[in-house]
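User: quick one, fold this
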Amino acid sequence: MTPAGDEWIVGREPELGLLTCLVEELAAGGTASVALAGAPGAGKSVLLDAAARLARRAGVRVLRCRGSESESQLAFAGLHQLLRPVLDLADGLPVRQRAALLGVFGLDDATGPASDPMLTALGALTLLSDAAERGPLLLVVDDAHWLDVGTLDVLAFVARRLEGEPVALLVAARDTLVPAQFTREIRRVTVEPLDRAAAGRLLDRQPRPPSGRARSRVLEQAAGVPLALVELARAVGRDPEAAEGGALPLTDRLEAIFAADLPGLPDSTRRLLLLAAAAESAELPAIHAAAGESATPDDWLPAERAGLVRIDDGRIRFRHPLIRSAVYQAATYAERHTAHRRLADALTGDPDRRAWHHAAAASGVDEDAARELEDSAARAQRRGGYAAAATALERAARLSPDPAVRARRLVRAATMAMYAGHPRWVGEISARVATLTDDPELLAEASLRAGWALAVTTQFAGALGFLLPVAEAAADTHPGLALDALGTATTPAYNSGAPEHRERILRALERVPAQQDETARLWVLAGCDPVRNRRRALALLADGWSEPLPEPEAGAEVDVPLTRMVVAGGAAWVLDETAEAVRLLGGALEHLRRSPTSGANATVAQALALALHESGAWAECRAALDEGYRTAAEAGLENVAVGAPLLRATLLALSGDTEAARATVQRAVHGIDLPHCRSLQVRAHYALGAAALAEGDHAAAYDRFRAVYTQDPQPAPLHFHASDYYLGDLAAAAVRTGRTEDARLVLDATLTRLAEGEVSPRLDAIVHRARALLAEPDDAERHFVAALADPAGDRWPFERAQVRLDYAEWLRRRRRASAARPLYTAALEVFERLGTRPWAERARAELRAAGVTPGTPSATSRDALAELSSQQIQIARLAAAGLTNREIGERIFLSPRTVGFHLYRIFPKLGITARAQLRDVLPEEPS
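Assistant:
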């Protein structure tokens, strides 16, 4: 037994030891996040209570909230419960954060725009950070599986950003219902059933411990679940013959135990218990108002004496959620209906809860109740509670008597779920629309939502199955809708890489006449065939995006076609207009950070990261990757959640951290069907091939690079766009492994295919590098020269440095060292600047062989940034630009304290002591 305040907890020494360490570390200024998962009745709440007592004894302030089934559809109800004790500090928040946070609680002036979910989460983080300045905080969250989605998203956001904050998060949830938001970054501890010895000790602590056969039956049926042990011991104590019954499923058994207490209670007490079970978290005055004048406080006494409920601070709490369930299920349908109707009548000042109780009291369809829920959804949407809005609209649809109205509400629910960033939910809702209506516009919109839901995962074929029929059907009658559908379809078609999808999209595009906005056509042309369509796509890009981008303004509504900017940026990236891609995608991301559409940040941040990587801005690439991955993990956007780690693995491989690169790839692709995600498959091959090159394992590297082409007699690219960019590396590995004949097959097939269109200067240089490496000695030099001839090649510095290194090696081996030296020097400068250690070491060795002793790289060059994380680099640059800690935190969604914590670590790594020195030691950012 372990003493914990006034209780004795049996058999939980490991869990209590962990919680004690967590509290001690927190009291010393540390941080941690732990999720306790276990079956109902495992004792999770008891452990949370013990942790809270330990924390208070250590001088740590405790903030608590508990999820409740009836409030799970109310936006940010749990967050309000958690933060209510510290909301007096909200006046100190930045204006936009304060407005967003108070807005979701309905504490604003109700005249502003919808709250931005990211600003709401950042406001909560900053509020907790400000509260922690007065002393460490322990956030205790019970029954997390019943929290509303908005609260879960905010808690996950906070948990990922606690570094440097004296704040710890302790969560408990049922083991089968642990929210997805807590499955990645938060440490999970399973609260297992008690072993038989501990279970026996717990029975011995009961007022009337069972003995003999009864004891064996209790131990057997309880299966180590503490709550079951306690309740079964109580049941056997009341009726010793209960131990003679057969085995029952655990949940049914416990609910039966709890319900067994009800018949002995007075009718007035049972009526109050049913009202409390139906309302669950309603305050006591509301329950009494629903019960009528005949109810008195004394009516609660029998339930309190039976241990069913506890009344604290004017609120009613069931001792365990299963007790609430037993009370509710023990009532008849008519009794439950009456309870909800009375609660709805009593909650006149709370339209949202009133709407839900009217819905629960409805018998069949009820348009009035549906309309109330629709109004509640509108209020939730205005507060940024898109998940709550979707839930309300989904329920409103079920209550709608008119199938057409039901379908319309489901489409709106799918839209809200899309804004909330829950693709699987969107798909489930959209699938129901087709069974309710034959309205072509509603069906088309539902198909677009279903296509989006699949496209942001990795189910590309499924997404196209929704989107392409819509586009083909609308091409003649609704060309604008058709063009939008084709633009949406191009993204999964690009990621899939399957030729039949792209050909079908391009055929449908020819049927769509010119529209006022041709941005979607630009993306279709570039995303489906950037070589054959290059000239037409470049013309559309130049025609639509030659003007300077508008500057985003904090707090102002974004008056810029963000979707068009993102689509054009993606097209520019595919077309190798890399600088333009950085300009458009970077501008779009800046706007998105200031708008209530932050769920789109993940896709845009990943696209920007790809362009930054190619342009040589690798520190900025890492920062964009981190931002994209965090948002993707929080929103369930699988394509980015896989793609971002693959690019991070590539950067690790190129820097020489090959073990971490391989582990990152393995984690990223686990459970992914790569053959149906060819863009991701090719990028995974390249990351692993780059790791092999970094280790000098050219045979393994060749196998990886060769895998991005088929084994046909005329090898075809695995991915129509991505594969060809690794042709130069394939040729280099082939030369070092004696597999030049096989590589020439790939090269010849590629040359034939590319001759059907127009290639970019970047791809032209890559092809010339491959031709030079695989050419006969007398023919190689002209291809090396051609690969370096176009000054535009400097826009892709790593690739150009590779060509220079290869050409310099070719020259030195022909005793032309003087011509090789400047090429070696230029290549080395790029490799050092980017931090590609294996390539830099190779260039230095070649320079020494050419008669030059290379100097030691500067400690304050870009190479010095290798010691910093991508987030620290981002913070350092913003601080160098003159932003305060609070301004930096608002920009990258961290608290000011965490920003200061990172700067404290950054200064010694850069060899500086003051903020003003940052501008001098940080390399200039690429334009």
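User: anything notable?
Assistant: The chain has a mean pLDDT of 85.
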